[in-house]
Design brief:
- The chain has helices at about 40-50, 70-75, 90-100, 105-120, 135-150, 165-180, 195-200, 215-220, 230-240; strands at about 1-15, 15-25, 30-35, 55-60, 65, 75-80, 155-160, 185-190, 200-205, 210-215.
- The protein is of the alpha/beta class.
- The protein has a single domain (about 1-85, about 150-240), classed as P-loop containing nucleotide triphosphate hydrolases (Rossmann fold).
- The longest helix is centred in the C-terminal third of the chain and has 15 residues, at about 165-180.
- It is globular and about 50 Å long.
- The model has no long low-confidence stretch (mean pLDDT about 95).
- The structure holds adenosine-5'-triphosphate.
- The site of adenosine-5'-triphosphate (ATP) has 10 residues, from helix 1.
Length: about 240
């Protein structure tokens, strides 16, 4: 089963190409690490796959739906952008209840899941405080819960561990593993390579709008020229160096 399939995707701003002829597949049930230097085009690709941006050319399916069919795709995905979309004047609990309603979740089921995630991310005692009073990490946690709450088929995450302490990073990793164990898919963009190394089943490295390498983290590490002590960071630096 395929969760994401892109065919010759291209995006130009004016006449400047930022995504060039991008074709790749993400298998269902995988955590896919989408890497690349600043400005490589990762956010642009995520915005195209989440139907927030139209490609200049090419096509893609997400959870079996064409990205030309925005409503169908939106129904099946979750998206955590770099800045979580939250209402600062709501409490954390109100924000998540609002989101559950917006996503058409059964209220009792939603309440159970909200309670579970608030507890898991150590937010229970803050649930009735306004988001405007939350730290950056706490806001990130609410954004994360919101993206996963409605059990999307494909979850897109842009720097999900940004601002999180090591305990929270561990919790996030466990949550993603649990999430994909039932066949859902995570598309994860981050510069924090140890997280990708720990979590990803497959990795793609984007450079100047083109996918320059793909494989499992182990395969990528075996490809670097100095095989001793190589990390995903070594791989990244070697293949994206000017
Ligand atoms: N609205 C826009 N108009 C013009 N150029 C844009 C626009 N949005 C992005 N770009 C350009 O597209 C390229 C890719 O940007 P994008 O944000 O997708 O990169 P990224 O890989 O997510 O980078 P980072 O790791 O820094 O977040 C960059 O050169 C950027 O300047």
């Amino acid at each position: 089963m395929v969760a994401i399939n892109t065919t010759s995707l291209r995006k130009e701003y004016g006449d400047v190409p930022v995504i060039r002829d991008l074709s790749f597949v993400v298998e269902s049930g995988d955590i896919y690490g989408f890497l690349g230097p600043n400005g490589a085009g990762k956010t642009t690709v995520m915005r195209i796959l989440t139907c927030l941006l139209k490609p200049t050319a090419g096509s893609a399916t997400v959870a079996g739906e064409s990205i030309a069919n925005r409503d169908a795709v939106t129904e099946k995905i979750g998206y955590l952008p770099e800045e979580p979309p939250l209402y600062p004047e709501l409490t954390g609990l109100e924000q998540l209840e609002f989101w559950a309603g917006f996503r058409g979740m059964d209220p009792e089921y939603a309440d159970d899941r909200i309670e579970l995630f608030l507890d898991r991310f150590d937010l229970t005692e803050h649930a009735n405080k306004r988001i405007s009073s939350y730290s950056k990490g706490m806001q990130q946690k609410v954004g994360l819960i919101q993206s996963i709450l409605h059990e999307p088929e494909v979850l897109f995450l842009d720097e999900p561990t940004s601002g999180l302490d090591p305990n929270a990073v561990r919790t996030v990793q466990e949550t993603f593993r649990e999430f994909v164990s039932d066949g859902s898919t995570v598309f994860l963009s981050t510069h924090i390579l140890p997280v990708v190394d720990t979590l990803a089943d497959a990795v793609g490295v984007l450079h100047q709008g083109e996918l320059i390498t793909t494989g499992t983290p182990e395969e990528l590490k075996n490809r670097v020229t100095s095989p001793e002590d190589q990390t995903l960071e070594d791989v990244f630096i070697e293949i994206t160096e000017p």
